[in-house]
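RETRY 2/3 - previous attempt timed out on the joint model. Re-submitting the same 230-residue input unchanged.
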Amino acid sequence: MPTNHTLAPLPHDDLEAVIIDYNGVIGRQPTPQMWSRLAALAGWPVEHTDAFIRAFWGNREAYDAGEISDRTFWQDLLHGGTETPRRREPLSALRKADIEMWTHTDPAVLEVLHTAHAAGLPIALLSNAPHPLAAALDDTPWCATLMYRTVYSCRIGANKPAARAFEAALAAAGHPAPGRTLFIDDRADNIQAAANLGLRTLHYQGDAADLARHLPQLEPTMGLAAPSAA
Ligand SMILES: [Mg+2]
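RETRY 2/3 succeeded.
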């Protein structure tokens, strides 16, 4: 119950908005087993999973930016796996496995964000993601609850760290002052790009407690009696 808590005071009180990355902050990185499963679905021998991952990232920027279709992204991967794949999974199975491996969230991060949201801080998601993953993220309860707006690279035709991605996120957040907007991301190049545009930044490195120190959080109210157990 919030009755015996109050919001933490400064330094968060002048924050107007938060813009937050998805994968590597809210979303957990896929496990090696998830990569192997996806590689196998795409027809790559399990011992070639590392090569599959390199091929995956080779085309992912264009896919994230909405420049190539689902079919093109996956067909290129299928053709690169083996000359004669032993089986061809339908596009829907590959898309489903891809979504599944990117949608595991960190409950500790979500808890911190729920508290910041409860304090009235607008939070916008800014993610490099292709259309199927963007739709899946928008459909999650946490996203619907926490996010004031969501901005995905596939929908704006620009990936972070392009300035246009940050400009779109600021617009989606209601044009807060960049100097009163905190951008959170796990990638140093994205952090640097945001700082160049005058945003405050937090280079997230997996510690939800560090995130909590940068956002409004509930703290025990001093001087108030604890609720009676009676
Ligand atoms: Mg990330």
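The chain has a mean pLDDT of 88. Closing ticket.
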